């Protein structure tokens, strides 16, 4: 999605700027034409605004969470407690394809709970404000087995960078049998 | 005397010595003092800025890194950029309203800003490593855990309170006083402007934002401070010491502070651009459109701060998250109007390629590029993947860098009035080029780091193989520094207008 948005919004102002620097003399563009360009430009901006944001709704973790909950599939509940500078995680092993609900709380200061794919990409992150009644939570379904790193992404003091953990995702086996 | 203090300051004094022969001391001297002092803080900030990648590469330890990041952010945002902006704005208000920018209130603004910043600096050097966003309740938790002492918390909070008082109350009061009260002095009036003018409208709007969104933070921070001093028991201020309360009032202010500063600088662009038009018309393409852009920015910015909290869901209900998403993107519509107004003005009238204007336009480009990154980050779905990464940190820094460049350009216009000296064009163009390369490079380095999952405010860049990003940051940081020192050099070599 980033790849769609960036070039469009970056290239546009650049091209027009260049035109102005190369030819600094006043242009005799008619008022009517400028008004038309204005309308088109603003309309495109609004269109992009609407399309991008409507399209992104289905990618919001909240939407996915709601969809998973509505589907009636069994969800594995995991409680996480964050404190400086470690996590207490009720279950560190998950199965591919089985939705997991992470409910995460902090008991001292602000912390983060960010899960990284083994390839280094962030799958999701949560911000934890201590004292918040509702735990930060979402439902996530792992699709690949492997070791998933957990990091704290909210600065929480002098050992912040050491605040990490690991989750293991295994192939969906006959664990149920 | 203040003018003598400036003159006697080593190095910088020669750059900002006020021209007292014009009888404009009342609008020149304090602004010159503020601008000069702000550059001292900028030097501190940029040295710490390149210090961070160096600390990482040389493995000089996480403590030093967190000290550097705390001071770097704090110095850059407040005593540098905000003070720089105050200096120019007071000068502009004085010249446009014909009112003195001097007096006790101005002195108090200066003392609170710089005194507060010094106290905070001392506290950070004394161990208080909390980053410039405070991360409340980290200051208290860190003290309980023995990472720093409670005395440093008290000292640091006192400093922050003074800085905030200067920004949220004193400076807006002074601008209001100059805009609406007191007698106009003919001899100070350089170019009269009314509130219908986008340049003035933006300034008044932004101080209103500071007052309105800052007051809740002042109340909460004030209550906490009283508790820290032991004047009231901590139990009496639990309503204020609740982390959620603090975080929300903090970001309502901090977010809108950035918007206010953006509105102020965009309005300064609107005020300055017409002065450099090739055909001498001195008019924007449309004042109405320019004002509309400012109003859109104002209205949408107020509640877009929710984007700081998406990932606490369901702590922040989904509907509010999405509202924050839409409002954040709404500021982009305002920006689209600004882009159009500026381009149409340039297109219609042509421009004189003066370094000052080039700096403003280059700053505007960086500002828009950064705005795009910010909007991407303010999308709820994306935020779940990049919140807390370098992407977001890069946005905060880039918006400051972009605004700095625009103000630096605006200063080109004010400098001759203040000092009676003219700036060199060649050096000016070199400064704009170097600085822009640095700014754009940093913007993309940070964004790339964020996309790679590199956390912000994180003292272990090697942990995820992110050191290449660190190298890029160092290289472009050096460009930025080279640009800045060229800028300083151009002041140093400025010549009297004959
Ligand atoms: Cu943490």
Radius of gyration of chain A using CA atoms only = 24 Å
What is the rounded Rg of chain B? 22 Å
Strand content of chain A: 25-35%
Following the backbone from N to C, one meets helices and strands of chain A in this order, namely HHHEEEEEEEEE
* CATH level-four homologous superfamily name of the largest domain in chain A: Cupredoxins -  blue copper proteins
- N-to-C CA distance of chain B: 27 Å
In round numbers, the mean pLDDT of chain B is 87
Round the mean pLDDT of chain A to the nearest integer and report it. Answer: 82
- Indicate the low-confidence ranges of chain A by residue numbers: none
Mind telling me which CATH architecture of the largest domain in chain A this is? Sandwich
Oligomer: heterodimer
Q: Give the domain tally of chain A.
A: 2
Structural class of chain B: mainly alpha
Give the low-pLDDT segments of chain B: none
Write a concise keyword list for the protein shown above.
heterodimer, A: 177 residues, alpha+beta, Immunoglobulin-like, 2 domains, 33% helix, B: two-stranded antiparallel ribbon, 74% helix, binds copper (II) ion
Summarize the topology.
The complex is a heterodimer of chains A (177) and B (498).
Chain A: H1 2-22, H2 31-56, H3 61-71, E1 76-83, E2 86-89, E3 93-95, E4 100-106, E5 111-116, E6 122-128, E7 136-140, E8 146-151, E9 164-170
Parallel strand pairs in A: 1-4, 3-9
Antiparallel strand pairs in A: 1-2, 4-7, 5-6, 5-8, 8-9
Chain B: H1 2-8, H2 12-16, H3 25-57, H4 62-97, H5 104-125, H6 138-144, H7 150-180, H8 198-228, H9 238-241, H10 243-272, H11 287-302, H12 318-349, H13 355-377, H14 380-386, H15 390-419, E1 421-422, H16 425-451, H17 467-492, E2 495-496
Helix pairs in contact in B: 3-4, 3-17, 4-5, 4-7, 4-15, 5-7, 7-8, 8-10, 8-11, 10-11, 10-15, 11-12, 12-13, 13-15, 13-16, 15-16, 16-17
The structure holds copper (II) ion (CU).
Copper (II) ion (CU) binds next to loops of chain A.
């Amino acid at each position: 999605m980033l790849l769609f948005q960036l070039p469009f919004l970056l290239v546009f102002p650049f091209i027009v700027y260049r035109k102005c620097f190369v030819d600094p003399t006043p242009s005799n563009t008619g008022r009517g034409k400028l008004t038309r360009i204005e309308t088109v430009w603003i309309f495109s901006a609004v269109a992009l605004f609407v399309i991008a944001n409507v399209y992104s709704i289905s990618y919001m973790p909240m939407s996915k969470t709601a969809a998973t909950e509505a589907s009636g599939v069994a969800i594995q509940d995991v409680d996480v407690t964050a404190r400086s500078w470690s996590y207490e995680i009720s279950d560190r092993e998950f199965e591919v394809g089985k939705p997991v609900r992470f409910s995460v709380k902090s008991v001292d200061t602000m912390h983060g709970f960010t899960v990284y794919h083994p390839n280094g990409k962030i799958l999701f992150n949560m911000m934890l404000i201590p004292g918040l009644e509702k735990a930060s939570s979402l439902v996530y379904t792992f699709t690949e087995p492997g070791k998933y790193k957990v990091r704290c992404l909210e600065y929480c003091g002098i050992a912040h960078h050491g605040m990490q953990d690991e989750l293991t995702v295994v192939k969906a086996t006959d664990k149920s049998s | 005397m203040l003018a003598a203090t400036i003159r006697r300051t080593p190095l910088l004094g020669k750059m900002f010595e006020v021209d007292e022969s014009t009888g404009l001391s009342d609008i020149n001297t304090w602004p010159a003092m503020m601008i000069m002092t702000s550059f001292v803080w900028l030097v501190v900030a940029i040295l710490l800025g390149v210090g961070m990648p160096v600390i990482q590469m040389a493995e000089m330890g996480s403590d030093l890194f967190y000290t550097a990041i705390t001071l770097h952010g704090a110095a850059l945002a407040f005593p540098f950029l905000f003070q720089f902006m105050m200096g120019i704005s007071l000068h502009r208000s004085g010249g446009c309203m014909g009112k003195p920018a001097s007096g006790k209130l101005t002195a108090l603004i200066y003392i609170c800003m710089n005194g507060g910043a010094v106290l905070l600096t001392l506290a950070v050097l004394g161990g208080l490593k909390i980053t410039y966003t405070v991360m409340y309740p980290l200051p208290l938790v860190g003290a309980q855990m023995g990472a720093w002492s409670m005395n440093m918390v008290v000292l640091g909070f006192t400093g922050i309170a003074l800085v905030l008082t200067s920004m949220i109350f004193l400076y807006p009061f002074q601008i209001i006083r100059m805009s609406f009260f007191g007698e106009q002095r003919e001899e100070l009036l350089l170019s009269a402007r009314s509130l219908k003018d986008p340049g003035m409208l933006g300034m008044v709007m932004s101080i209103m934002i500071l007052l309105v969104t800052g007051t809740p933070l002042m109340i909460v921070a004030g209550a906490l401070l009283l508790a820290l001093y032991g004047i009231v028991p901590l139990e009496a201020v639990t309503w204020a010491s609740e982390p959620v309360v603090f975080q929300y009032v903090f970001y309502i202010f901090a977010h809108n502070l950035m918007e206010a500063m953006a509105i102020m600088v965009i309005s300064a662009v609107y005020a300055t651009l017409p002065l450099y038009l090739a055909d001498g018309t001195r008019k924007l393409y449309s004042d109405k459109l320019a004002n509309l852009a400012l109003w859109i920015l104002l209205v949408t910015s107020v509640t877009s701060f929710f984007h700081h909290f998406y990932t606490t869901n369901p702590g922040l209900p989904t509907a509010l998250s999405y509202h924050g998403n839409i409002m954040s993107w709404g500021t982009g519509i305002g920006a689209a109007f600004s882009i159009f107004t500026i381009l149409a003005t340039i297109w219609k009238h042509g421009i004189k390629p003066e370094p000052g204007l080039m700096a403003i336009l280059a700053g505007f480009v960086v500002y828009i590029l950064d705005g795009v990154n910010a909007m991407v980050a303010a999308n709820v779905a994306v935020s779940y993947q990049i919140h807390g990464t370098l992407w977001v940190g890069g946005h905060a820094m880039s918006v400051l860098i972009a605004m700095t460049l625009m103000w630096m350009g605006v200063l080109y216009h004010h400098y001759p009035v203040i000092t009676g000296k003219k700036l060199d064009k060649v050096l000016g163009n070199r400064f704009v080029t170097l600085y822009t390369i640095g700014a754009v490079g940093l913007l993309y380095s940070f964004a790339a780091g964020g996309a790679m999952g590199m956390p912000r405010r994180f003292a272990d860049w090697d942990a995820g193989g992110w050191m290449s990003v660190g190298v890029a940051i160092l290289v472009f940081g050096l460009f930025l520094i080279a640009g800045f020192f060229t800028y300083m050099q151009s002041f140093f070599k400025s010549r009297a207008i004959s």
